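Predict structure. Chain length: 205.
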Amino acid sequence: MSLLTYERTTAWLDNLITGDEKWIVYHHVVRRAQWVDKEDQPEPVAKDETHQKKVMLSVWWGVQGPIYWELLPEGTTITGDVYARQLRDLKAHVQSTPWLRGRLHFLHDNARPHVCKQVKKELTTFGWHIVPHAPYSPDMAPSDYWLFSDMQRVLGETHFKNRAEVDAWLKTYFASKQPAWYGEGIRKLPIRWQKTVDSDGEYFI
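Prediction complete.
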């Protein structure tokens, strides 16, 4: 309710920065539903390898598209130190992003590296308003319900040989989306907040 009544209008969403991380695996296997007769067995589908190669994507975006993104070295993940450094890099990109002007609002989830003391201290120096986010609520995180879900669909059964191919694919993917598409995902936030209120806090998709 506090988010729904935060300001009289939702114009502040134009100055919202949101972001998260996603693993990009090198070999995607898509499991599809199969219609078979009762006496028939479905065709076997190969499972993803438990320890297959993958690389972590970190991306921050707003109503007109990505502001800053990077791929971590293979086999590495996010820590408080890494995330604090990424935020400093993000801030530098924000300062050269012409459509971000005025008071900025920052939305990320409550993953441990995002809310550690070091990161909280870093963010206090930015002067950004930190938008509250309920724990374990991907249904209210634009990166989850909008960007990453679409990215996963487009990835399909794409196979990558190396990190450079992942990087090239991401550049093409981000460029393929018009600003209106990114804006639509951000502006769905109030609708999803309202659904959360209407459902008494129950998770929805």
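Summary: The radius of gyration is 19 Å.
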